[in-house]
Amino acid sequence: MKIFDPRHETLGPEELEQLQLERLQALISRLRRNVPRYRKSLGSVRVPTPADLSNVPPTSPEDLGAAFPYGMFALPLREVMRLYSTIGPGGMQLVVGHTRNDLAHWGRLAARQLVAAGGTEHDVIQIGFGGGASGQALGFMLGAEQIEASVIPQDAYRPEYQLAMMQSYRASILITTPTQAQELAAILDRRGIDPQSLQLRSVLLTRPVPDTVREELKTGLFSQVHCSFGVGEVLDPGLCVECEEGRFHVNEDEFVVEIVNGELLVTTLLREAMPLLRYRTRIQCDMERVRCPCGRTGAVLRPLGRLDGRLRVNEMPLYRNQIEALLAQTRAKGHPFLLDISEREVRISIMVTAELFPDTVRMMQGLKTEIESAFLEQLGVRAAVEYLGPRDYEQREKNDQSKAFPGGW
Amino acid sequence: MLRVRNLHCGYGSLRVIRGVSFHVAPGETVALVGANGSGKTTTLNAVAGLLAPWEGEIRIAGRDTTRQPAWKNVFNSAVLVPEGRQIFGDMTVSENLEIGGFRNPGRDVVIEDVYERFPRLRERSHQLAGTLSGGEQQMLAIGRALVAKPKLLLLDEPSMGLAPLLVRRVFKAIEELKQDGVTVFLVEQNAVAALEIADRGYVLETGEIVVEGEASDLLHNPEVKRAYLGKGYKEVWE
Prior knowledge:
Chain A is an alpha/beta fold. Chain A has helices at 6-9, 13-34, 36-42, 61-66, 100-116, 134-146, 159-169, 178-190, 211-221, 320-328, 361-379, 390-400, and strands at residues 80-87, 93-99, 124-128, 150-153, 173-176, 202-205, 224-227, 240-242, 248-250, 255-260, 263-268, 279-288, 300-306, 311-313, 316-318, 337-341, 346-351, 383-388. Chain A starts with 5 loop residues before the first helix and ends in a 9-residue tail after the last helix. In chain B, 37% of the residues lie in helices and 26% in strands. Chain B is α/β, with parallel strands linked by helices. In chain B, helix 4 packs antiparallel against helix 6. Residues 234-238 of chain B have low confidence and may be disordered. The chains are: A alpha/beta, B alpha/beta.
């Protein structure tokens, strides 16, 4: 498989160290000059080698939240060309800004992933996302422009429509979420369409999936399956490149990664609008340096899970406290409830007690509709409400304690 | 070819350069740009060995040259074209070129190359160097450095005091050096002209590098404008 930017993706250790040192020092002097929060936290600390980065205080998502929206920007807004919302721990809103150069770099980094997934200028790339991945869609679009492929951008997600597009335009690369890829495979299966009749060469998923899912999609869509791994507040896609060996190589010419107590910390080396210094991603990761047959020299990350209890429902990031806060706004407030959170929806079981629900069936139906539409409107997630009598409720509660929630990136 | 790490230096008790790191790979043209007084020439003088660094490490072609005097650097094939040309005004053009190659036994061949490169110098080879125009003097200064067969050419403000048309001609000459495989480290106040011919660039501001990157990226970098206009951003929503 080809490498998009061999000069930067296969840097030797000495070259990389020099490059990271230069970029780190420039980053630190820029932050000290332009961002009051960093000026305060940095003090007089110096970084004579990249290893000395560990003396620099880390930046947490809460710091970004406290400075929301523009307190972490290193440039005035007139230099910023794009603003993206992203979700931090507890569902707090965060923003990422990009300058013209930031967008250009994003395109080049995303192009590295596309080329590693087999993309060339001859490909027709279909980007089919819905839900919480619209920021990623733009990253892939910029990348596809870099490699001069033909792109079919899509907004709302409708699997049938997506399939029709794939058939008529003969898309050779599909970029989509794992859930939607699975749905597509299910449609093919249901309608008895031979996946080989599609021209798909490669499917690029928006997040890492277990090997079982990968294998299932490989057969279901008759195509290679690649995954992308990024961090919304840092860059997604673009932090890593998944090579043909299935390893996530960090783009170390643009990011310094550290693992501290199992948590992934990322420093952006070239970001202009909103650089991050030792950003605590709340993602649990392993890191190793291996000699990889693909030729890339970037450190290899193995994402293990979230450290902040982030859930993923229908590809939307979600936190339990968001669900609780939403329920507290409805008439269900104060009533005991149980959550059963699956990859596709949130099932809410509310206990019916004599004093809480003296009303008619119509009232209960009304509350159910109220909750379900509030979920869709405010969190973008499907919910299903059911009512349980006290005995059933206790039984369910006991069963649930052993259940694990789906993790998300 | 050139690698500098954590360079600190200055004059007397005045610290001008505060922890600067940069590198130039073989065959690359790299520009160090910045406003007046940002420390560009000081950095270059430290690299050339004209100024002893207080701290840090300088390596040229893999050899540690940190506290090495300038004359030794010539033997490492790093040659400086100083600010304001500093040619020998009351010597002829050809004598100036010969001095450049005093330790190069094959200098006659190289001088011939220089004449090929800058035909104007051949026309004026017997003229006193002081009577040349500014642009011709700059060509002579570069030519004199080339006669020493440098692996690394250090250029200090080649555009200084030249009319815009001559600036373009001098930079064209530098660009041609790149095509011939000469490694060039260029210190320049005229950022746009320098970044147009460079592969990469560094922006120096009050003794610290604030941006490193591909020259084409730097041309669009807000920090470059800032370093030049010397204008601080007080508020992000200004």
